[in-house]
Write a structure and sequence with these properties.
10 strands; 6 helices; globular; six-stranded mixed beta sheet; four-stranded antiparallel beta sheet; alpha/beta
Length: 216
């Protein structure tokens, strides 16, 4: 039997006197699309941060690609992510942003034009990111997540600021990424959108608990 690519064992997160995530147990398998649905503040983004290792669990264990976070490694290996608060340099172009990230990640900058085109951005657009529309910024965040060709991808509320055409693009992109063997975790307050491509959807309550699982 294949081991889960991501596993959360009885994971809780407490901030001061408030517990935001309560005894979360998840087993996520490779080459699947997992949707995370629920109201704002329900804990979807925090779950992603726990998986990435950006936030330390108060209790429980997080395992990613066979590595126990905070024991075998500080941050999760092999995950590309698009989370809005980990943003972009506003005074640089999209291409410049990705080239800087590629240098930091020790990746050839020659991959940048292809990735920008893949997400529907013009590789030779020299406008600064501060001049981008919200939808363009969202696409650039997705491009940054794809830069290292990681086997796991996390997209946090990627439909924010995308128009109808942008949402159709995102559905096609996610399906294509799965065809490449990627494991995708994607959050949205719109469960109907997640049903378009998810293999399983986890539904959160406003108290930070998973109260249901949907197999579309």
């Amino acid at each position: 039997m294949t081991s889960p690519i991501i596993e959360l064992k009885n994971v809780s997160k407490k901030f001061r006197n408030r517990t935001v995530i309560h005894g979360l147990n998840l087993e996520l398998n490779a080459n699947q699309i997992y949707g995370f649905s629920g109201p704002n503040g329900a804990g979807k983004t925090l779950t992603f941060k726990l998986i990435l290792g950006f936030v330390k669990a108060t209790r429980g264990q997080v395992i990613v690609n066979g590595k126990v976070l905070r024991q075998d490694t500080l941050f999760a290996p092999g995950i590309g992510f698009a989370i809005q608060e980990y943003g972009l340099l506003a005074d640089k172009s999209g291409s410049e942003n990705l080239k800087l990230l590629s240098i930091l990640s020790k990746i050839q900058t020659s991959v940048v034009p292809g990735i920008l085109s893949y997400v529907g951005l013009d590789p030779i657009d020299d406008r600064q990111v501060r001049e981008y529309s919200l939808g363009m910024k969202q696409r650039l965040l997705i491009a940054a997540a794809l830069l290292r060709d990681d086997n796991i991808l996390i997209f946090d509320e990627p439909t924010n600021a995308l128009d109808e055409n942008g949402q159709h693009f995102l559905v096609s992109l996610i399906r294509d990424l799965k065809s490449q063997g990627k494991t995708i975790l994607i959050s949205s307050h719109d469960a109907e959108f997640l049903k378009l491509f998810s293999d399983k959807i986890f539904k959160y309550s406003s108290e930070g608990n998973i109260i249901g699982e949907i197999v579309p």
